[in-house]
Amino acid sequence: MKKLLFTVLCCIPILLSAQSNKYLIKAGQMFDSGNGTFVKGCFILVSGNKIIEVKKEQELTDKERADYTLLDLSGYTVLPGLIDAHTHLLFREELKPHMDYSAQSLLKTLTMEGDAYRAIYGTVRANAYLQEGITAVQDLGNSGQFADIALMNAIDNGLVPGPRMRSSGPGLASEGGQLPGVIYKHRHLADDEYRIVNGRDEIIKAVRENVNQGATVIKIFADNVPNRTSLSVQEMESAVKEAHRYGLRVTAHATDAESIHNAVLAGVDGIEHGYNVQDSTLQLMAKRGVILVPTDGDSTVMANYARIAYPGEDSSADMASYLKRLAKRLNRAIKMGVTIAAGSDDYIDVNLPYGLPSKHTLIGYHEAGVSIPDVLKFATVNAAKQLNWEKRIGIIRKGYLADIIAVDINLENDINSILQVHFVMKDGVIYKGGKPI
Fold first, then answer.
1. Could you tell me if 175 and 76 lie in one domain?
2. CA distance 360 to 96
3. Digit-coded pLDDT (tens) for 305-352
4. Could you tell me how far CA 120 lies from the centroid of its own chain?
5. Where is the Pterin-binding domain (predicted)?
6. Is the same domain home to 312 and 407?
7. pTM of the full predicted structure?
8. CATH number of the domain that 412 lies in?
9. CA separation for the pair 17, 22 (Å, rounded)
């Protein structure tokens, strides 16, 4: 048998590249996202970019033992690559003390950086996400004029390493977008970041523009908080109908009770944030199969936020109260049968390495009372459904793409084990230090 111990992977890149891409992964334990269970004694056969089979040791044939290169991950928990269903890889908001929500960071990005710089910045962040074991993302706007599409294409074409992407292009928003405080004279700046639409004809045209530019999901802004403008139910219905005509899902930024309910009535496939959702809306979401993506963070993210935004103040009680309210909303949604997909909405700089806040989102779900297996399902099989890739990724099963990672062995009992990534495979290719080997 050709044998390759994972502990020496970094030392022999030439050997790896010389061999055919056929791997036999020996897992210490494997998370089965389909059943939400941890299974011991599994061997995963990978050929090319596909998972060929998952077997027990006694089921392996002599030919398989001879033909496949052994990757010994027996000291780790092996699971599907993580999926973040709400990212903004090309946008970073600089947090400053006592800064109210404003357009300052975004205006700086629009007027002093531009799309080319953002694409380069997004490339760095995309690589960091991959190194953290996040092998797929859904990037939802705030990326200038289709710079996210360029990044997605560059990754798909092998120019740069990064997660596989669903990208929306500019989000479709009513007057003003999310640029609060911008005077009328400079309202055109919103057009550099959002696709501003007024009326059903414009929103249909905007969907077609995004589709033509390569968007693989359509994002709409049911509300523009803190701006007062919002899309009507009729406008959102038109966006959904047109996007579905092209086979694309529609997901809606919606934060207040009315905008969430209106978006669900309009037929959207997903709700982003959903902070103030009512029980009646959750019931409708469960009935219609609308996925909720709670972008809640965790105690670490909130603590870092508080230290930067409110220096010298003790805001721990306020942060704890905020997380408690979001936890109640999350558990209500679960109880009512709403499908939950993991999404970080990571764009505010809280002094954490790129990619890490995404995984702190998972820790936050567990802090809210969700079991570790269910949290992992949020970030694998459920998120794959939100990305419309449920038949391709999110589960280690025959015929699925070989997006596989390994973390600390104690994941079953300690969610923080997700922070320690020891192995990353995307599309059957092993990555080490941000590079394919």
1. no
2. 21
3. 999 999 999 988 999 999 999 999 999 999 999 999 999 999 999 999
4. 19
5. 177-437
6. no
7. 0.95
8. 2.30.40.10
9. 11
